Amino acid sequence: MVEFGLKLEDNRVAEWGEFYVSYEKLKQILKKHKDQLKRFNELAARDPTLANSLKDLLNAGGLTPITSFASIKEELSNNDGESPEKNATMADASHTKVVSFMETSFRKPESERTGLLEENANKTNSGSYGSSKKEIGQKNELNQEEPAPPLQAYEVPTRNSEEWREDSSSPQRNSRSETSKSDQSETSSVGSNITHVLRKAASGVTELFTNPLQRQLKDSLLQGARYSAEFEQVMMKDIEMVNKFYFDKLKELEDRLEFLKESAAMGLGLKRHQLLETSDEDVRTTHRRLKSPLEFAKSFVRLSVRASEKEHIGLDLDEDDEEIPLVGVSKKEEDTAQRKREAESIQRALVDQYRTAKLLHNFAILNLTGFVKIVKKHDKAIPEEKGKYKQAVRGDQICNEGRAIEDHATRLEKLYASWFCGGNRSEARAQLLPKKGDSLEMDWSQFRLGYRLGMCTILGLWVCWDCFWGVVSEGSTTIGERTAFPVFRACGGLLTLQWFWGMSAWVWSRYRINYIYLFDFDPRIVASPLKIFNEAVDNTLVFLTTMLLYYKSGVHDLPGDKIPAGIFPFFLTMYTIVQLALPTRTRVPMWMAVWRLVTTPLHSPSFFDGYVGDIFTSMVKVFQDLAWTAFFILSGEWLIPEDNQAPGNYKWEQSFRFKHVLIPLLTLLPLWFRFSQCLRRYADTGDRFPHLLNALKYALSQTVTLFGAFHPLYLDLTQHQESDVFQLFWMCTFIGSSLYSFGWDVYMDWGLGRPKHAFLGPRLMYPQKGAYYAIIALDLVLRFAWVLTLIPPHTGAKFALPDYLTAVSMVLELGRRTMWGFLRLENEHRSNTAGYRRVGFVPLHFATGHMHEYTQEKKHRGFSVLIEVTVITLLVVVVSFISVIAAQHATERANNVEL
Question: Which pTM does this prediction carry?
Answer without folding.
Answer: 0.72
